[in-house]
Design brief:
The protein has 385 residues and is of the alpha/beta class. It has 13 helices and 15 strands. The chain has a six-stranded mixed sheet, sandwiched between helices. A four-stranded parallel sheet has the order 4-3-5-6, with helices on both faces. Helix 3 packs across helix 4, helix 5 crosses helix 13 and helix 11 packs across helix 12. The two termini are 50 Å apart. The C terminus is likely disordered.
């Protein structure tokens, strides 16, 4: 550790380049010094005014550098006490707000995205981040005794200790419910608003693939929680390729999704078999979810429908989650890792106070690919909303 006089000398001797933003240079110097353990966590850093004087810059330059360091968990500001280097044993918590319980059998995508966020935080080289799951919120968040629940007590402890700096919501509407119940002002980023999944692309790609496979009469099994952009993509593809309209077969989503998809498929099979000679009968099925695909394929097997002879199947799926369908299913997959990385990157920008296009009505879109051609990408996309 270096003494206060040595710290002052170290700062004073630092020379800033004019060709690079000053706040970034100051941030980098502090970041390097913190990594080498040159600042005592028990002693406050010099004030903004003193740092500005020693660096020969304005207060706003110092404040911006400090805000970025605080957002990355390297320093912490304690009211009336000053700014301190955060001890490595004191982690910054990113809350992950999850609608269903992670123990729910059907919370596959939630588990994979949460696992990816956890992996991202633990791999940060500064080693000061961790993520905390607050799951089962759809059931308990609106209850008056939320604060007495185990999740509520954990949240209260994290807030009281000043460790919870921001949150990522994996379900639409959770951010508003969370803010209403907790009344804590922290940045929250959310799937569906800040980060979008390219459901439009799934719909278009599914129709295009089937048409290229000479399967041009399609039925879409779609759960009622699906994003409307999937239908927009399907309609866009049928118009572009001059195909017959795709019939949509809706069913209830949620924890009974697989069962409901199974029942919807049984009903469809009965109607299909009632008109075996109908030239307009479907010869391809599109399915909105890989869990729903299990229900549909179970119904096809039960009724001895031949796949792919009678129907070719395409399903939207989560990369890294494998299911046994019993019949061939072409999977159009989205990467949970890409979703998690985009969410975390945006949260860090929020914590740094950076103004970005994400807060002006556009978002970050994660694209999918066919399972046999995996190279997932994500990009800023103005059509997110």
């Amino acid at each position: 550790m270096i003494s206060s006089s040595e710290q002052s000398q170290l700062i004073a001797e630092s020379v800033l380049e004019r060709s690079k933003p000053l706040y970034l240079q100051i941030e980098e110097r502090f970041r390097s010094q913190i990594a080498r353990g040159e600042w005592d966590p028990a002693s406050p850093l010099p004030s903004t005014e003193k740092l500005a004087e020693r660096w020969g810059v304005g207060n706003t330059v110092i404040q911006k550098a400090m805000k970025r360091l605080a957002a990355d968990g390297l320093i912490e500001r304690q009211p009336r006490n000053g700014t301190f280097v955060r001890p490595r044993t004191k982690k910054v918590i990113v809350g992950v707000l999850i609608g269903p319980s992670l123990m729910n059998e059907f919370a596959y995508s939630h588990r994979t995205i949460y696992s990816a966020i956890s992996s991202i935080t633990t791999q940060i080289k500064d080693g000061v981040w961790m993520c905390r799951p607050y799951d089962g919120l759809m059931e308990i968040l609106s209850r008056p005794d939320f604060c007495e629940s185990p999740i509520g007590q954990q949240w209260s402890e994290d807030v009281r200790n000043g460790l919870l700096k921001g949150a990522i919501a994996l379900d639409p509407g959770l951010d508003a419910l969370w803010r209403k119940q907790t009344a804590v002002d922290i940045p929250i980023v959310q799937v569906g608003t800040d980060v979008c999944i390219d459901f439009d692309g799934f719909g278009y790609e599914a129709v295009q693939f089937l048409a290229q496979s000479e399967r041009k009469r399609m039925v879409y099994f779609r759960h009622n929680h699906a994003d409307s952009r999937d239908v927009q993509g399907i309609q866009r593809a049928t118009q572009t390729l001059q195909l017959p309209p795709v019939e949509v077969r809706p069913f209830e989503g949620g924890v009974q999704m697989e069962k409901n998809a199974f029942q919807a498929a049984l009903q469809f099979i009965e109607q299909w078999r009632a008109n075996p000679s109908n030239e307009s009968s479907a010869n391809a099925l599109i399915i909105s979810d890989d869990i729903a695909a299990r229900g549909v394929t179970t119904a096809l097997l039960k009724k001895n429908v031949r796949v792919p002879e009678d129907f070719m199947l395409v399903a939207q799926a989560n990369e890294g989650i494998e299911h046994h369908y019993g019949v061939p299913v072409e999977r159009f997959e989205f990467s949970s890792r890409s979703v998690a990385q985009a969410l975390f990157d945006i949260l860090k920008k929020c914590l740094r106070g950076e103004k970005t296009a994400w807060f002006n009505g556009s978002g970050f879109t994660v694209h999918g690919l066919w399972a046999r051609n995996k190279q997932f990408t994500s990009e800023k996309h103005p059509s997110c909303h």
